[in-house]
Amino acid sequence: MRQEVGVKTKEYYVCEWGHPAKRAKAGDGGEILRWESRAYGGAQDWNKALMLGPDGVLKEFQRDYWPKEQ
Fold first, then answer.
1. Which of the residues 19, 33, 58, 60 could staple to 51 if both were Cys, CB 3.0 to 4.6 A apart?
2. What b/e string do you get for 15-26 counting C-beta neighbours within 10 Å, with b at 16 or more?
3. Using the 8-state DSSP alphabet, how is residue 28 labeled?
C-alpha cells in the first residue's frame, strides 16, 4: 500500500472494499476510515484504517491481521 499514498482516493477504496465500518474526522479536515473483517472457519481477521487528506487522497494507513482465536 505504500505506493498508493498520495495516489489513491477515498472513492477507490469504497469501490474496492465497500463502505467502511467506522468514520471519523481528522484534525486537518480529512477523514479516517476503518474497515473490519471477521472471518469464519479459522481464516484471518483484519482491520484496515486509512487516513485521508482534505482532498480525499490517501495520506497514511494502518493494517492489523491476526488468526482467529482458538
1. 60
2. eeeeebeeeeee
3. T
> Is residue 59 within 8 Å of residue 49, measured between CB atoms?
no
Separation of alpha carbons 23 and 70, rounded Å: 30
**pTM listed for this prediction:** 0.73
Residue closest to 6 by CA, chosen among 51, 66, 38: 51
For 3-60, write each residue's pLDDT tens digit: 788 788 889 989 988 899 999 998 889 999 998 877 666 667 778 899 999 999 999 8
Provide the pLDDT for residue 53.
Answer: 94
